[in-house]
Design goal:
The protein is of the alpha+beta class and 350 residues long. Helix content is 21%, strand content 26%. The chain has two domains: 143 residues, no CATH class; 151 residues, no CATH class. Strand 6 and strand 7 form a beta hairpin. Helix 1 packs across helix 2 and helix 1 packs across helix 3. A five-stranded mixed β-sheet has the order 1-4-7-6-2. Strands 9, 10, 12 and 13 form a four-stranded antiparallel β-sheet that branches. It has a two-stranded antiparallel ribbon with strand order 3-5.
Length: 350
């Protein structure tokens, strides 16, 4: 089986900082707005405020720096200057990735977490001072929840959900990286690499099965994640992501929604066996993956990551986990996956 390779092929990475803790942040103030209004999940690109989402590179660092500088000057006040909800969402997200994320650090494993917060909104949109206060609160929470000695923030995805009265509620989906030992970007497995599909989210370094029963190896979900992550582009120090979006396959952790099942990818239905590991019936399939199956599902996981990637984004993070539904002969075993994409920017973090 060939090594997973993008088009064009990215440079081979060199790896370098565990786990979820749901936090809730609330930023309150009284402003008037009547009714309940749905807020679009698509991050709007406004030519007068936001950089356009194009395939070409555009340095958005000056806009983020201007937001941080302006916010710092009016911090604690109720400045009358306002911006749209889409602009506030974009600036908060981009500023968090600019100031907190270390997306250039290469790692083998990732975990998913989330924050929830709310922010005042009025008839003219969101005050710059309130958007900056929300950014400040989220930044402090992120810095408190990440142990920089063992992990780092890869990317944060901010999504406004709805406006109720004078508040807009929102969520921040977070992907953190850890485990900095090198993992090779290839699909070659040894002849004795018979590996259990997963261990139900529990650490296990003895996932050998079948002819390799009890063998010292991480489970298939982690091994596949390491191989696919190793194909992500190498970033220079101080690079970060903006205009972030996340897509999942059967994902159900950390507040993230699964956009797709194993059979409904946007371009056609993949033939069985599925591109990512999915055992529909314990009688007709196995949860002990052979070396050939490990190669197939490693390549398949990479292919799905690239298939779901928006044309104007770069793959920034991938997390693979295992899941199991009991049911005797009808038991289901599968890998769920979460992919995050963003527009890559390089500048000087403050």
């Amino acid at each position: 089986m060939k090594t997973p390779t993008p088009n064009p092929q990215p440079p081979t990475p060199n790896p370098q900082p565990p786990t979820p803790n749901n936090l809730f942040i609330r930023v309150f103030a009284a402003l008037s707005l009547v009714g309940v209004v749905a807020v679009g999940c698509q991050k709007e690109d406004l030519s007068d405020r936001l950089p356009e989402a194009t395939t070409g590179y555009q340095d958005v660092t000056p806009r983020i720096m201007a937001f941080l500088e302006k916010g710092g000057k009016i911090e604690g006040s109720k400045s009358g200057e306002a911006c749209t909800l889409d602009s506030a969402e974009w600036y908060i997200e981009a500023a968090l990735n600019f100031s907190v994320a270390s997306a250039w650090l290469e790692c083998n494993q990732t975990s998913v977490d989330s924050l929830e917060f709310s922010m005042p909104v009025g008839s003219n949109g969101v005050l710059i001072s309130d958007a900056f206060a929300a950014y400040n609160g989220l930044r402090d929470q992120l810095e408190a929840m990440i142990d920089e000695s063992v992990e780092h923030l890869i990317v944060a995805d901010v999504s406004f959900s709805e406006v109720v009265g004078s508040e807009v509620s929102a969520r921040v989906l977070i992907q953190k990286g850890f485990d900095y030992d090198k993992a090779g970007p290839n699909t070659s497995y040894g002849p004795n690499d018979y590996i259990y599909f997963g261990f139900l989210d529990q650490p296990n370094n003895n996932c050998g099965c079948g002819p390799n029963n009890g063998g010292a190896t991480q489970c298939a979900d982690i091994r596949i994640q390491q191989r696919v992550r190793a194909t992500l582009p190498r970033l220079n120090v101080n690079c970060y992501y903006s205009s972030v979006t996340t897509r999942g396959v059967k994902w159900q952790w950390g507040g993230a929604d699964a956009n797709y099942s194993h059979t409904d990818f946007p371009t056609g239905i993949p033939a069985t066996p599925f591109k990512t590991y999915y055992c529909q019936n314990a009688v007709t399939c196995t949860n002990c993956l052979s070396p050939a199956q490990m190669s197939f599902y490693t390549q398949g996981m990479y292919d799905v990551m690239m298939q779901l990637k928006p044309s104007n984004r770069t793959a920034s993070a991938v997390t693979v986990d295992d899941w199991f539904f009991a049911g005797g002969e009808n038991a289901e075993y599968y890998h769920m996956a979460l992919f995050t994409y963003g527009q890559l920017n390089c500048g000087t973090n403050q």
